[in-house]
Amino acid sequence: MTAGMETLAASLAIISRLDVIVALLIGSVGGVIIGAIPGVGPAIAIAILLPATFSLDPIVGLTLLLGIYGSAMFGGAIPAVLINTPGTPVNALTTYDGYPMTQRGEAPRALSLAYGASFFGGVFSVLCLMALAPVLARIAPLFGSREIFLACVLGMTLVVIAHRGQAMAAGALLCFGIFLQTIGLEPVRFTQRFTFDQTWLTSGVNLIVVVLGLFALSQAFALLAGKDDTPVPPKFAGGLFRGLHEVFRFPKIAFPAAGFGTIMGIIPGVGEFTAQFLSYTLAQKISPNPERFGRGAPEGIIASEAANNAVPAAAMIPLLALGIPGEALTAMMLSVFYVHNVIPGPNLFRDQMDFIMALYLCLLILNVLALAFLMMATKPLLKVIAIPNRFLGMAILTLSFVGVYSLRNSATDCLIAACFGLLGLVLKRLNLPIVPIILGIVLGGIAENKFRTSLPRIHSPVDWVNRPIAAIIFAIIVVVLAAHVWSLLRTRGREKAHV
């Protein structure tokens, strides 16, 4: 008990620093504004800001990025509800019931429901994980090289399977990301791989350059190539406090949705969309009026927003405990750790629990700040929705190239980023996923290092799974693959039966 209080006191001392408080304010408010602008989203904002955070202390840089990550979904509900356009991709499900309520003249109620559900999901997730932190601190040191290698394999497996209907494409793009990670000097013997005697390839393909290209530049190209539309938000009148307490009228929806978000966030490669799908499906099944879903059901908004906002805090668990990012945004944050020589993994939980608790307290506070800002500033934020697409595209393009060039003062990096921007644009036009490439680069590098570290102690294939945690992870991989194959066979069987 005394140790826990000491850890909490140390964590409070960390977040009471002026620079951390400023980062919290900028991140939470900036995240809401970014989320409210259709076509930007947290991935683009974090990619642009990432080079700037390298010069900050780890807790300051991560607080800023976490603020944007956690609060963008709050703001993303505004255009989703008012103009049927999700501010961030994960707010897409909110449009199903939010926009019909706006058409009925219930826009303030729909927005306050979204805000209240997002706040509930975020706080629920953080409190759960703060309570689990001591347990994770005891479990994390049990993960050795082979366990982390198998966890990476599980993460890559789940990334592919999570893209239903696009598993082959996701697998190919994941392999492409793994290949990109191998370019340059390999980490053990420092021999050159796939450089073809080109000196500019010796240092490899920089993750941040790829991230900025695939996310930021591709979106800038898409906005510049598209129509110069200026979304027009509807007239907005009424208070926003009604829906905040209305969330608690549906505890059978809110608690399972936040639980799904917490669990799915912990599992690498799954994320918000799976959590939303499960919570929305459950809400529809247990609702006395399932026919209202998709036509303006308040339960639908609660299920969607509580689930997606519970994910950010939970997604930090595999990153902090094992050094394994579960999705693209935490993969970007991993680079902040590495730049400051803070290595996420079992030792971080054992030696720097105050740092981890400080991050969770920041996540808790940013939910409060985001909600408070929205209750005061929703009406002014409606002007943000009306930013012309091409102006937005040019701003993203300029900031992205500035960010890329500032990394190593390299024009070659700008050219590489532009190439990945074009690749990202093509993938978007073909409706193919981008995230597997990023996770392939990150997870591929971690898996290779842990695989090679484990080899001296491996004398037969059984040695990979001769420890309890390794055996459990391997069993999960087998079950997941078997379940996926079984699902595909059942789907084909049904299709043949209908023919």
Quick description:
The protein has 499 residues and is mostly helical.
List the helices and strands and how they pair.
Layout: H1 2-15, H2 18-36, H3 41-53, H4 58-82, H5 94-103, H6 107-139, H7 145-162, H8 167-182, E1 184-185, E2 192-193, H9 207-225, H10 242-246, H11 251-266, H12 272-286, H13 298-322, H14 328-339, H15 346-351, H16 353-385, H17 389-408, H18 411-429, H19 435-454, H20 468-498
Antiparallel strand pairs: 1-2
Helix pairs in contact: 1-16, 2-4, 2-16, 3-4, 3-9, 3-14, 3-17, 4-5, 4-6, 4-13, 4-14, 4-16, 5-6, 5-13, 6-11, 6-13, 6-16, 7-8, 7-19, 7-20, 8-19, 9-17, 9-18, 11-12, 11-13, 12-13, 17-18
Q: How many domains make up the coordinates? A: 1
Main beta-sheet annotation = 2 strands, antiparallel
Q: What is the distance, rounded to the nearest whole angstrom, between the alpha carbons of the first and last residues?
A: 65 Å
CA-atom Rg in angstroms: 22 Å
Quaternary organisation: single chain
Structural class: mainly alpha
Query: Largest sheet, order of strands side by side?
Result: 1-2
DSSP helix count?
A: 20
Low-confidence stretches: none
Shape: globular
SSE topology string: HHHHHHHHEEHHHHHHHHHHHH
Q: Which bin fits the share of residues in helices?
A: over 70%
User: Average pLDDT across residues?
Assistant: 81
